Amino acid sequence: MATVRVDGVEVAYDRAGEGPPLVFLHGAGEDARVWRPQVEALADAFTVVAWDEPGAGRSGDVPESFGLADYARCLAAVVEALRLGPAHVAGLSWGGTVALEFYRRRPDLVRTLILADTYAGWAGSLPADEVRARVAGVRRMLAAPRDAFDPTLPGLFAGEPPAAYLPLLDELAAAVRPRTFRTQLALMAEADLRDVLATVSVPTLLLWGERDARSPLSVARQFRQAIPAAELVVIPGAGHVSNLERPEEFGLAVRAFCSAHPEPVAGGR
Asked: For residue 98, which of 30, 43, 19 has the smallest C-alpha distance?
């Protein structure tokens, strides 16, 4: 484990392998451990980094005023600490929203974008009534007694959660910090990053579970229409957490895409 300190917040990350940097950003209610299959599969060809975002895992807590710009600034510190130049940046769900904000602010640090089962913020990708329903549902969950708290929202998997990862999912659920979850809820509900999509000039992979009920394929198609030359790969039979439900297919798609784009795009934006 390595760490960087940004404005008083300690940010932890795992690093494995050698080669072009490939940075994974997890979803809400998760931490770096959710990327174990991809770290193990891809460390032979890349310097694979999985962070514990501020407020999660081994990283320090965040103030209630923490915003998307703060997440992006912390991520920039991690990428710069690698001293390997621009990185392939892959974000799942909430992590993809963070990746878009990071690109907005620091395109010089992004070699490619991999946006998996994600959103341009809930406000930027979902109907208003669906955003209200999600906010109400998460608030009810957060109001429940701590021993009843379960961030495993409906629709995360196309079927039953993979048996091999049930212990990991239990560990992730036990480690969730409700205050962080509240901060993320507010940010996701309000964020609308559709304006960022058309500015993306780096190669972009849209990697989606075919049966994603949280961020359906209609969102992926919106992204493909808005991002110039974005490539869409659909993982058959996978739901929202496609990296755990179909880890081999997910890893192969990431490997092929990153290997096809080994050099940074000249000229930034």
From this structure: 30
Q: Give the span between the Cα atoms of 223 and 226, in whole angstroms.
A: 5
Q: Kindly tell me if the per-residue pLDDT of 6 is higher than 70.
A: yes
User: What six digits make up the tokens of 64?
Assistant: 């209630």
Whole-angstrom Cα distance, residue 29 to residue 200?
A: 27
- Of 198, 9, 18, 239, nearest to 116 by C-alpha is 239
The CATH number for 2-260, chosen from 3.40.30.10, 3.20.20.140, 3.40.50.800, 3.40.50.1820, is 3.40.50.1820
Q: How far apart are CA 70 and CA 98, in angstroms?
A: 10
Q: Which residue has the tokens 């999985």?
A: 50
Please write the tens of the pLDDT for every residue from 215-266. Answer: 999 999 999 999 988 999 999 999 999 999 999 999 999 999 999 998 766 5
Q: Of 60, 49, 1, 61, nearest to 25 (Cα)? A: 49
Continuous H helices in the chain: 36-42, 68-82, 94-105, 122-125, 128-143, 166-175, 178-190, 194-197, 217-226, 242-245, 247-260
Alpha carbon distances (Å) from 143 to 140, 147, 179, 201, 202: 5, 11, 12, 42, 41
- Find the largest Cα–Cα distance for the chain: 52
Instruction: Report residue 24 as tokens.
Output: 């994974």
Q: Distance (Å, rounded) from C-alpha 65 to C-alpha 137?
A: 22
**Hey, how many other C-beta atoms are within 10 angstroms of the C-beta on 72?**
19
Tokens of 81: 């600490």
What span, in angstroms and rounded, lies between the C-alpha atoms of 19 and 16?
Answer: 10
Show contacts of 129-138: CB within 8 Å, 24+ apart.
131/189, 134/189, 135/185, 135/189, 138/181, 138/185
